[in-house]
Amino acid sequence: MLRFLPFLLVVAALTGCSHEDGARGPSTPALVAPHPFPAASAEVPPGHREVLCPDLRGDGTGMTIRLVVPQQATSSHREGNGCAFTLRSDPRRALSVQIDPDESLARWRETYLDPYVSDDGDDAVGDVTYRSDVPGLDGSTAEELRWYSFSDGSPTRVVSLLAAGIRLSWSVPDGEPLPATALDLVRRSVAVLAGTRASCPDRGGSGHRSLTFAPPKDVGWVEGEAGRCRIYVDGSLTTLEGGEVDPAPSGIDALAARVRRDPEATGIRLERGVATISGERADRLSWEVVRAEETENYEPAGTWRIVVVQSASARVRWGATPAWWRDHGAVFDRLVESVDVSPGRPSRS
Predict the structure, then answer these.
(1) Cα 217 vs. chain centroid, distance in angstroms?
(2) Which residue from 58, 334, 77, 308 is spatially nearest to 198, judged by alpha carbons?
(3) pLDDT digits (tens, 9 = 90+) for 130-156
(4) May I ask the CATH class of domain 8-48+72-189?
(5) For a Cys staple, 163 with which of 43, 137, 238, 339, CB 3.0–4.6 Å?
(6) What is the pLDDT, as a whole number, of residue 117?
(7) Burial class of 272 by CB neighbour count within 10 A (0 to 12, 13 to 18, 19+)
């Protein structure tokens, strides 16, 4: 399962839930292997932006889902074979997409809903309905599963669609209607692309740049944070490890000045014009952080090397131990090489 902690579909799957049984559909449909296909609508409607959701598994499909999401999506999480977006800063309002799921919605229901039938309690689920004949993707029909979850006092309504190897889900607080028109708009925007690319928004300024990059696989997960994309390393005990792609960076001279004021920073080196990002000349700033003992915030002792490559349009940063740089430094080089920056449509990110 993905680490979509705010997203209630995963909570339901992990905890096991109970429900009031709804109408059953026909026999379990066979899963379809994902494959590249175009969107039914390639437009980016007003109030939406285009996003890319790559399969980050090293042994995954090697594909990326393209779709549009509402501009009100305030955060994003990309991990494994899926992505989730929180809407209007409310974790009950969420949109998620997954490529190559392990099982059909009919089987998912049998596994995670049917064994736990109940009408009350913190984990109560009800109003479960299932169909296998709704509009889907790439000209196919889709499975559709709907249910209500009490979710420890945060009642939520959820709808999931599964077709062409893609699962698309939307949740809202109980009492709000599930947004059928909005969900259909997102469904029609879904395309599957060959290769693995992620998008990173630039919400500020008038340029509305569009930045895409290829996140390292089997490293961790990617979070959209304040207009930047942060790459987290699974199992890391320090914020110094991992990377960041920023389509609207502040000046590298200002960053170098901040680093020089850091008492833990040593070996600071700023090199002009020694790299490129998306064909644009870039500078490189590097330094080491040497920490003798654990901090009051429980950051561990150790030594880490930080490297920043920055052009006028983008910044790419990575931090890791000297041993990691010796063995895996090419991971950072490939990340920098993968960044593509181009002027985008105002609704694109």
Answers:
(1) 13
(2) 77
(3) 999 999 999 999 999 999 887 667 788
(4) alpha beta
(5) 137
(6) 65
(7) exposed
